[in-house]
Design a protein that fits this description.
It is built from ten helices and 14 strands. It has helices spanning about 25-35, 55-65, 85-105, 140-155, 175-185, 200-215, 225, 240-255, 285-290, 300-310; strands spanning about 1-5, 20, 40-45, 70, 110-115, 160-165, 165, 185-190, 195, 200, 230, 240, 260-265, 295. The structure holds NADP nicotinamide-adenine-dinucleotide phosphate.
Length: about 325
């Protein structure tokens, strides 16, 4: 990540805000815990602490912790399973963010929430901007869009950060799936007609840290003025096939993985329960204009994750 205005952020914010990280066991939640260590007072809430399908459990958590900042990294992220578990997907992705945002307003906290490129139908050839009309193709996207609306309607201070193709050194993601499949198969067929920006949990957490630090130090204007939806993804774009090629070029060199033969295929040749957008590329210009923050290019961010994997982190 590179920062414009955000450069020179103090390592610690002016006071010691209490930060509640919901979903701290997920890919992004883990990295947020790492990035926000400098805040001093972090409370992580995993599934044992809060059940997001139960609004009373959410209210009890926020009222008990009384945070200054809530980072919601939790979500129902099983895109295909959501097609048959829509009640649970909507409970976690649509209702829970609204309840969290209401509770954030009640205790005067800044609420940071993450959403997805899958709110769009992928039919526009250019990168998607925040004012484009969402039209989700699947239940997961519809549930995330409903969650955005719930956060907006709660009326507090919030950031909705839409991102894409999240992965990192831990968790359930495309990179780790590719490395596992390479041990099992010599040929892999990978979809080549869905384009997006693979985005690391590490870059997302760093950028979130820079923005929250700047907001709390009053460097970007009032929280109310800054509240809104922002796209936040790594720069550049590729297809899943291009991403797989980049992964195996590095994995062969750095991890000694025997690269499988990769065959590009169309989405129609790989039917999945949930339809996916063809163009998932998000424009990050609003984020840069408002906060001076840009995430690294996707292949540079991949280098960092491969480095971490090869060093055993
Ligand atoms: N992954 C992607 O490709 C992608 C793309 C675009 C946007 N996003 C968005 O980015 C954010 C972070 O995604 P991620 O990939 O880091 O997610 P993740 O790794 O799947 O983690 C999700 C987290 O939510 C928790 N969770 C799920 N259901 C819960 C429930 N009922 N009660 C309490 N906790 C619950 C999980 O707990 P357990 O660990 O116990 O299951 C986990 O900590 C999400 O808002 C997601 O929608 C992700």
């Amino acid at each position: 990540m590179s920062e414009g205005q955000a450069q020179g952020s103090p390592a610690t914010p002016p006071e010691s805000p209490r930060v509640l990280i919901v979903g701290n066991s997920g890919q992004l939640g883990r990295e947020l815990e790492r990035s926000f260590r400098s805040f001093g007072c972090i409370v992580g809430a995993d599934r044992k602490t809060v059940n997001l399908a139960d609004p009373d459990s959410i209210r009890a958590l926020v009222r008990r912790e009384s945070p200054n900042v809530i980072l919601n990294a939790a979500a129902y992220t099983a895109v295909d399973r959501a097609e048959t578990e829509s009640d649970l997907a909507f409970a976690v992705n649509a209702r829970a963010p609204g309840v969290l945002a209401e509770e954030a307003r009640r205790c005067g906290a800044l609420f940071v929430h993450y959403s997805t490129d899958y709110v769009f139908d992928g039919k526009k050839p250019e990168p998607w901007v925040e004012t484009d009309k969402p039209l989700p193709l699947n239940i997961y996207g519809a549930s995330k869009l409903a969650g955005e609306r719930g956060v907006e309607e709660a009326g507090g201070n919030y950031l909705i950060l839409r991102t894409s193709w999240v992965y990192g050194p831990h968790g359930n993601n495309f990179l780790l799936t590719m490395l596992r499949l390479a041990k099992e198969r010599s040929i892999l067929s990978i979809v080549d007609d869905q384009v997006g920006a693979p985005t690391t949990s590490i870059e997302l957490a760093r950028a979130t840290h820079a923005i929250v630090t700047g907001l709390l130090a009053d460097r970007f204007g009032s929280l109310q003025e800054c509240s809104g939806i922002y796209h936040m993804a790594c720069a550049g774009a590729t297809s899943w096939f291009g991403f797989a090629q980049a992964i195996f070029a590095r994995a062969a060199r750095q991890l000694g993985v025997k690269a499988p033969e990769l065959i590009p295929i169309g989405s129609k040749d790989y039917p999945m329960p949930a339809a996916r957008p063809h163009n998932s590329v998000l424009s990050n210009e609003k984020l840069y204009t408002q906060f001076g923050v840009r995430l690294a290019k996707w292949d540079t961010a991949l280098d960092e994750v491969m480095q971490l994997l090869s060093s055993g982190r």
